[in-house]
Structure formats: structure tokens, C-alpha cells
């Protein structure tokens, strides 16, 4: 079995298959040999588990997942990688390759059809141009998965895993906290990839919650309030909430005060519980 972390092996595969890296598809492949085994272990790959991977590259993470889990389904958009993958993954009978944009795959159907009776985890080195849409999709669709363990840009990791009430948090942070318990597992330097990107990375794990940590009268409205609040994150809440939600400013101020908040509160200062009670009060105010 060829060492897919070895630059010589990667270059020879590129030459033999006429493959060239696509910047626009976020093709920076892992070459640090310690990262993929660690990701696979911490990502929950083990007997009895099925793993969904997004973005195969040359299969360096795929093989570490396949060594540990019962089955791996890897979704890859770039057809020019498939001749390479047919060679690098040839020794494994528990890997299925799906040629598609992950955003077009019916993941509920995929899990039903490919992983019946198995615990399912997602583990991937994500293409960075589409990190947030992929993470949000994995969470919002309420897939029956235990965890989502992904390599993302370091700054994205900090934002996704920021505690509510901190300066780094945003609407995406609130959604991550609502659906999961996030943690940064370890940092990965830019030199761990080929070609090296101009940013550092981190591996994060989102352990999916069985039930949300807060109760709200209307979940869609709760997220609308969160998005409205963070739409002008440095401003005090009455203006952005009033403008985005179409509720009179004084009614927004009344709702803030009745939640024990002040009229000068900003989105980045609120906890998830405070957002939930504010959303319920604003729902009443909207009538
Ligand atoms: N897993 C490999 C590794 O760790 O070396 C490759 C990771 S590379 C950062 C991202 C991979 O995702 C590339 O193989 C790229 O072609 C693929 N990709 C990019 N956009 C995608 C999409 N929308 N759906 C599925 N795969 C995608």
C-alpha cells in the first residue's frame, strides 16, 4: 500500500493520472502522517460504525477511516480524482465512492441505504470555500449522526466553537450550540498540506445533541431572531431587530427589558437561553 502522505507518491500519482490541483475546489491534501489517524480515532471510526467523508482527495483520510470503521462512504465532486482513487483505495472493500457535490446529496437517504443498523459519524477535511454551508446543512437536517468531526480553517474553528456571549460568536455559533456540543480538538499547521494553503487549520468535533439545550415556542422564529440580531453585530439590538423583524422599536425594547436585558445589549453578549426567551417575547410582540 502506497504512503499517501509522501510528497513523492503524491507527485507520481499526479503525473501518472495527469491530475492537477484545483484551488477553487479547496484541494489541499494532508501530508502530515500523524493527522489522519488521529482524526479517524477522535472522529469515532471504530467497529460497528459507518462514516461519511466529504472530499476524498487521494484518499489519505479515507483509508484511515476504512481501517477502523465498518464502512466508509466518501462523497467527491471532482471526477478527475476518480482514476487516482480507483488505484489508491483498491485494497479496501468497505469504501463506497459517490461522485457528487455534497450539497446535492440526499444525506438522509444515503444513511438509510448505506448504514442500516450502524451508528454513523461524519469525518472530513472540508473544502474551505464551502465550510459553513456544509456544517449548517449537516446540523439543520437533523441527520441521525453521532458526531461531525471536521478540519476547518483556524478562524472558522474559533467562530464555530466560540462560547455564546464572546466576541467571536455569530449566528452560526448559536446554531452550532443549539444542535451540538462543539470542541476544538487540535490545531494543524499549513505545512501539513500539499499544496500548502496560506492559512492554518484546526480539527473540531460537534457532538450532536439529542435535544436542544433551550426550549423555544417557534424554532424557525428563534433562528430568525438570532440572524436579525447578528446582522449588525456591533449595534445595540433594538435597531437591527426592529428593522429585520418588522416590530416597532419600543416593543423590541420592552421585550429586551422583560427578559432582564437592557436596551443597549448587543448580540454578542447574549446567551442561548437569553436568545430563546427574547425570541418568545418578540413572538408575542409580533402578535
Ligand atoms: N480528504 C483529502 C485530504 O484530507 O487530503 C482531501 C481534502 S481537500 C481539503 C477537499 C476535497 O473536497 C477535495 O478532494 C475536493 O475535490 C473535494 N470537494 C470540494 N468541493 C466539494 C463538494 N462541494 N462536494 C464534495 N467534495 C468536494
Automatic annotation (TrEMBL):
Asked if the Swiss-Prot or TrEMBL record annotates the protein with the keyword rRNA processing, the reply is: yes
Q: Which residues form a coiled coil?
A: none
Q: Detail which positions bind S-adenosyl-L-methionine.
A: 28, 30, 55, 76, 101, 125
The UniProt record lists the keyword Iron: no
Segments forming domain Ribosomal RNA adenine methylase transferase N-terminal: 35-210
Q: Which UniProt keywords apply?
A: Cytoplasm, Methyltransferase, RNA-binding, rRNA processing, S-adenosyl-L-methionine, Transferase
Pfam families from the UniProt entry: RrnaAD
Q: What does the record give as the reaction this protein catalyses? A: adenosine(1518)/adenosine(1519) in 16S rRNA + 4 S-adenosyl-L-methionine = N(6)-dimethyladenosine(1518)/N(6)-dimethyladenosine(1519) in 16S rRNA + 4 S-adenosyl-L-homocysteine + 4 H(+)
Q: Which domain of life is it from?
A: Bacteria
One of the record's GO cellular component terms: cytosol
Query: Which family does the record claim for this protein?
Result: Belongs to the class I-like SAM-binding methyltransferase superfamily. rRNA adenine N(6)-methyltransferase family. RsmA subfamily.
Free-text function comment from the UniProt entry:
Specifically dimethylates two adjacent adenosines (A1518 and A1519) in the loop of a conserved hairpin near the 3'-end of 16S rRNA in the 30S particle. May play a critical role in biogenesis of 30S subunits.
> What is this protein called in UniProt?
Ribosomal RNA small subunit methyltransferase A
Organism, scientific name: Merdimmobilis hominis
Amino acid at each position: 500500500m502506497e504512503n499517501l502522505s509522501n510528497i513523492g507518491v503524491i507527485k507520481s500519482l499526479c503525473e501518472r493520472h495527469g491530475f492537477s490541483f484545483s484551488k477553487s475546489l479547496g484541494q489541499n491534501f494532508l501530508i502530515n502522517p500523524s493527522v489522519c489517524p488521529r482524526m479517524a480515532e477522535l472522529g469515532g471510526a471504530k467497529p460497528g460504525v459507518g462514516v461519511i467523508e466529504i472530499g476524498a482527495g487521494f484518499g489519505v483520510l479515507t483509508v484511515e477511516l476504512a481501517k477502523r470503521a465498518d464502512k466508509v462512504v466518501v462523497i467527491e465532486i471532482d471526477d478527475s480524482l476518480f482514476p487516482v482513487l480507483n488505484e489508491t483505495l483498491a485494497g479496501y472493500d468497505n469504501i463506497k465512492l459517490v461522485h457528487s457535490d455534497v450539497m446535492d446529496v440526499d444525506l438522509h437517504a444515503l444513511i438509510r441505504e448505506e448504514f442500516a443498523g450502524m451508528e454513523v459519524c461524519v469525518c472530513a477535511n472540508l473544502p474551505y470555500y464551502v465550510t459553513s454551508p456544509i456544517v449548517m446543512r449537516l446540523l439543520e437536517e437533523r441527520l441521525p449522526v453521532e458526531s461531525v468531526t471536521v478540519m476547518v480553517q483556524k478562524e472558522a474553528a474559533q467562530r464555530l466553537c466560540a462560547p455564546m456571549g464572546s466576541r467571536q460568536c455569530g449566528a452560526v455559533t448559536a446554531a452550532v450550540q443549539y444542535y451540538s456540543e462543539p470542541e476544538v480538538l487540535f490545531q494543524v499547521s499549513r505545512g501539513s498540506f500539499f499544496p500548502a494553503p496560506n492559512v492554518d487549520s484546526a480539527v473540531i468535533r460537534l457532538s450532536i445533541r439529542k435535544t436542544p439545550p433551550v426550549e423555544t415556542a417557534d424554532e424557525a422564529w428563534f433562528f430568525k431572531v438570532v440572524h436579525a440580531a447578528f446582522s449588525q453585530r456591533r449595534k445595540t439590538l433594538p435597531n437591527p431587530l426592529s428593522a429585520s423583524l418588522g416590530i416597532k422599536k419600543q416593543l423590541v425594547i420592552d421585550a429586551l427589558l422583560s427578559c432582564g436585558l437592557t436596551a443597549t445589549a448587543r448580540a454578542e453578549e447574549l446567551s442561548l437561553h437569553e436568545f430563546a426567551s427574547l425570541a418568545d417575547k418578540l413572538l408575542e410582540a409580533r402578535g
